[in-house]
Amino acid sequence: MRPVKPRLHVLLARDGHTGVVLRRGPSREVAAIAWNRDKDTFQLGQWLRGRLYELRADLSPDGKYLIYFAMNGHWGSRAKGAWTAISRAPYLTAIALFAKGDCWNGGGLFTDRTHYWLNEGYGHQILEDTTEVTRGGEATLTRGWGGECRGVYFPRLLRDGWTLREDLAHADAVVFERPLWHGWVLRKLSRAAVGVPGKSVYFDEHELVHPERELPRHGWEWASPDLGRLVWAQDGALWAGKITKASAKADDPITGAVMLRDFSGMKFEALVAPYAKPGRSPKRPRRR
Q1: CB-based burial label for 167 (10 Å; 0-12, 13-18, 19+)
Q2: pLDDT on residue 110
Q3: What is the CA 239 to chain-centroid distance, rounded?
């Protein structure tokens, strides 16, 4: 039986050259990993035992802070089993903690380096707060995308330069595009389906599109242009390659593809964030 590869989702700092890789696997274990995009080096931040909803997460423009929504099902705990948190990337220990108690809404977006929009929905209970970043501004480009992942994820895509292609919508997919190089376009098919092996309810597939042809890249679970190259996640690894004037005419337009890091084989470690308060467990929010 083929081993199940971890799932990867990446958050890129818009005003810097850092990022956070969210590695999920097994299904209730998530690691946040810092990515130096200049040097393509990686540093493990912290693990969480629970479900971190990566599509409701965001990284501040300077890469300093992370906002995310998570659930561990401990409904009688102080955080009510599901919560939104703000942490210092790439760690997950909260400097601001908002108990939710259900999985509707939650998470949020950074509106600038020091302000964030909280995906309030049915409301949060403030358990811990911070002055390092504060609530301010509304999420831009919000639309009626419901109270789950798409209500945060789609505004994030639009903010980060993706174009919604309503003319290409499928029954189970919303389509976004970003221009690449030499006539090529990266197409993202954001799907919603239940029971797809190895996939969450919400997941992405991709295509490379040219006026003359379309190349499916459905194994790419995340992809983005970045610093003059194309980067993508596939089978538990992060890859990078370029499209040059010469390669753009080839059967496969990507040249110089290189694996940046294979995240398979990682195992949970109970790590403590360097800023954590004494006695605080890194595994889950404190109980009553």
Answers
A1: exposed
A2: 96
A3: 16
